[in-house]
Design brief:
The chain is built from 11 helices and 14 strands. The chain is an alpha/beta fold. It has a domain of 214 residues: Rossmann fold. The strands form 5 sheets. Strands 2-1-3-4-6 form a 5-stranded parallel beta sheet, with helices on both faces.
Amino acid sequence: MSGSGEPSPDFWRGRDVRVTGGTGFLGGHVAGRLRELGADVSALGSGDADLRDPAAADAALSGADVVFHLAARVGGIGFNRRNHATLAHDNLLMGANVYESARRGGVGKLVSACSVCAYPAHTPVPFREDDVWSGYPEESNAPYGLAKRMLLVLSDSYREQHGLDSCAPIVTNLYGPGDNYDLEDSHVVAAMIRKFSEAAASGAGEVVLWGTGSPTRELLHADDAARALILAAERLGTSQPVNVGTGTATSIRDLAEAVRGATGFEGEIAWDASRPDGQAERRLDVERARELIGFEAEVPLERGLAETVAAYRQGQGTGADAAN
């Protein structure tokens, strides 16, 4: 589409916006950007509304102009492998309740964050939106991925039956300030930043990382993801899947070297091949997002990693309500 890749303050000024997961990682970036745009934002954390409870979801969302559903039970490979039932149960309930509450409460626009984990384990690279239904997700995160895939079904179904204007953009792996740095439950960038930072501070000679280092991941800064979701609320009038990413993949081994440099760690990296790698390759086709909402990622990985390391060292981080 033609036009700017920046959200419009005129669209958001004075709007009543609710952000589920708004006290978490991605939600914090979205809520902050919306406030800068002049929206009246309610950032809802798990202590504000248990979205697994239909009545609580109704109370939290009723009457909103726009809802961003970013709350999720989510973690890295280790967390996913330990919590298959919880991930399926909680994410399915939250998604179903949010859509029904949005319908009942007269919400004008609902944007719910789907995840790259929804894609099948053996999707051809680059991942194209039409392939999201072509197989079963990678085993270690399949329950989470399938629960997130259901957001696409909910969006299409509620649009067709009830006229609810909603969308569920498929967001790639995220990183950035405010991430969850818990070594048991964090995603790859946050886990590396913590490990390398602690090793650099202690003078350790080696950092051990999971897997072989051979898989690739497409890494999107949370500021870029927030901008994409806000643009989707403004411009995306369809429930068809839309990839949100950079279109560029980085191997885990190259990422480790970049994080080592950003943290100042001078020791060795050892790879524990007895630990799982997860999906072998992830890279999105991002042309549809460019065409439909005018989105292109802007934050280069080197700068984003430096910002994230600085934020970690300043104690900025969260473990709650973080989507993707």
